[in-house]
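During the reporting period the student researcher (J.K.) took over the structure-prediction task from the postdoctoral fellow and processed the backlog of single-chain submissions. One of the processed entries is reproduced below for the supervisory committee.
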Amino acid sequence: MKLTKCCLFPWSFMQIHGGGMMQPCAVGPDTDLGDFLIDYVEKKSVCEDFLNNEGLQMLRKGMLTGNLRPMCQNCFFVSNDLITVEEFQKRLKEYLSSRLGTSVDLETADLTKVYAYNWMAISFTNRCNLSCIYCVQSTLKGNNPYFKAEIPYEYASDILDMMASKGIQRISTCVEGEATLYKEWQSIFTDFHRKYPQIEMYMTTNLNRRYSDEDLELLVSYTKLDVSMDSLKPELYSYLRRGGKLELLLENLDKIDAKAKEMGVEGPEILLHIVVSDKTWTEIKDIAEFAFSRGYGIQLGNYEERRNTIACQKHILKPINQMDEEEQNEVRDIIEWVRREAAEKNCSCVIQGDIFKKVDKSVEHNYNRFSITDGHPVYKAFLEKYPKGEPGRHFDVVYDRDNISYAGILFHRGESLKLCGLPENLQLVVREVSVYKEGVVSAKYNHRVEPGYRRKVSVPATTFFFEPVFKSDDVEAVLLDVSDWWTEAED
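J.K. obtained the following structure tokens:
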């Protein structure tokens, strides 16, 4: 049984940074899949379709087979819940069919080479006017030329036309910079909106600039503004978002609302975006009440520990799943309250990736990384006996250094397993996968994860017993992988 994450981003989404880097998802060195400035702007690509290059095809193959890249394994955007590769392929085909119709035979097509982007994001500039402590701008802004990089202005309109030609339904501005700092931002996107009114325009912005009347008119024409706001306390806000002024942000929100009223239009959907950490979780309720009172939505984002940020280097912040259990219970209660209030007031509530489930699982001690929905007799019996797993015995997935995945029941030292009531005459094909301690590798494979050989096992008297073999003191866990099963009639 192979498992994977339910993520359609490699087929549906592309973001482009001001330095040219192309990524279909979260920021990470192993998701840099092309150079837009070379492959498109300079027209030097050896790839006929630069939005379908070899790197993207390899990423898609990993999702289709369950052999996920490290960034995918630890993604802070998409839920960690896993599904079978068969179910994922079914959902992918349903999405592609909804976008492509019958123009592609999805039953015979190579799904690593088929895409249907409905959303693209671009940072025409990597420059930012703030240096938020959990952003790479906090340490690299002043000494890394990448954070001064911009897409050449003369190509901006052509790039936007190209994106529109891909049939996208949404375009976002801002990936790592502040979009409104780009030269002629207002005129470029005013023209784009006039040419393609059917395409939704989204922007992530800190709203910490002085805007002209024309700027405000454009901001009002956006479909959605994702506005960074971690606190309604000026001191905490400026501490987290260095260089930012809360009073300027609030003033600009007032101006946008006033301009929409003046123009007689509804204006953009505004979401106040909180990066949730141990310093900000107590701010969630106040910001939500402020947002809902003005008809705004709220978005809760994971705090991601990135080593090249001030927050991580100086240990200023903690993710919620590293906080005390009592505090995590309070966070869960607040998130539930926000959801209820948002639904009651008909306001948006976006919870990024797995943030709610991470708190929920941590508090409720659910150790199983995935659930079983098929008729697998051993895994089904395990789930019935241990619905939330145990600290030393639970469903898990491990990866070797080639990102090959192995799914099954993970055992720590001293643990064994006895399952009763299995089908009669059950035959299994099993293997044990050794998981080595951090910093220790197997001499044979030079991998941290070493799969053993598959072997056939007969289950006597409907009872399955398993005790893992630890090959050395350097092995910290053993994963039981049951790859096949069947029953045989008695002689």
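The committee noted the following: Residues 377-487 form one domain.
J.K. will present the remaining backlog at the next meeting.
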